[in-house]
Specification:
This protein is mainly beta. The protein contains two helices and twelve strands. The chain is elongated.
Length: about 280
């Protein structure tokens, strides 16, 4: 009996020790924890800035018609100057022919009769002249406009006569006053002169085929055939000469354009566009 109790007590001790060990060890769950897969980190992808491509887009093709022909007119300044200047009579005709898109052949033909009253003498010059050369139009017109802003070169030639109407003898000691003027009425014909001039001008179309214009000329006298006893004070077409070899002139013109033929040009250009940033 004693052995039986001893066996039971030993068995109880082992059982209690097994229970204590079982409480200390954590229970392993049969169901494994589900680990949510980590989402990959989204890296900021730097987009490589591509070089801007130049796109070539053709503009709409525009057909432009250029008119070619002859323009003829008159200088209103010379024509009307005789109304208020009793010592002047004159007229000048102007004309140009469109040679290319930008270049024009140009010419002026005129007549002048000018009386010059100086302190010591009075003379009259009358004759004809012609100027010929070219104009370059550097104005860019819109569509069918035909306005001009030009620079040109001319060569001028004049044939004329001079008449010495009167003169005074110079008296260095005018104690008794000035001597009276001596009337001579000596006439010299067959005189000539040549010059070069740079012409600046503009012409604007006010109504169809009618143009008004204004021009300034800077002149350089190249040759001048004079009488033996006095100088030419005025040369038709060149202007006065007592400023030296340089002269200046201007005109105010009205002209009419006579179209002869037309040329059509295709104004198709390539426009370069850059992409917007």
């Amino acid at each position: 009996m004693r052995h039986t109790l001893k066996f039971i007590s030993s068995l109880s001790l082992l059982f209690s020790m097994f229970l204590g060990y079982a409480q200390d060890v954590p229970e392993i769950s049969k169901n494994k924890d589900t680990i949510a897969p980590k989402k990959p980190k989204t890296e900021a992808v730097k987009k490589e800035t591509a070089k801007p491509e130049i796109k070539e887009t053709p503009k709409d093709s525009v057909v432009k018609t250029d008119r070619y022909g002859f323009r003829v007119g008159v200088d209103l300044y010379k024509l009307t100057r005789g109304l208020y200047d009793k010592n002047y009579k004159g007229v000048e005709f102007v004309g140009d022919w469109r040679l290319t898109k930008k270049y024009y052949l140009a010419a002026e033909l005129g007549y002048e009769d000018k009386t010059t009253e100086d302190d010591r003498l009075t003379s009259a010059a009358n004759g004809t002249y012609i100027k010929a050369g070219f104009d370059y139009n550097f104005y860019q017109n819109w569509l069918d406009m035909e306005n001009l802003i030009t620079i040109g070169l001319r060569g001028g030639f004049s044939t004329f006569s001079q008449e010495l109407l009167s003169y005074k003898i110079y008296n260095p000691n005018p104690y008794w006053g000035e001597l009276p003027a001596i009337t001579t009425n000596e006439k010299y014909s067959g005189l000539t002169a040549t010059w070069l001039e740079v012409a600046l001008g503009l012409k604007a179309q006010v109504v169809k085929n009618v143009f008004v214009g204004f021009g300034v000329q800077l002149k350089l006298l190249a040759s001048n055939k004079e009488p033996s006893n006095f100088e030419n004070l005025y040369i038709p077409g060149f202007n006065r000469t007592y400023d030296g070899s340089f002269g200046i002139g201007f005109n105010y013109t009205v002209s009419y354009f006579i179209p002869i033929y037309k040329k059509k040009t295709m104004a198709s250009e390539i426009k370069k566009e850059e992409p917007k940033k």
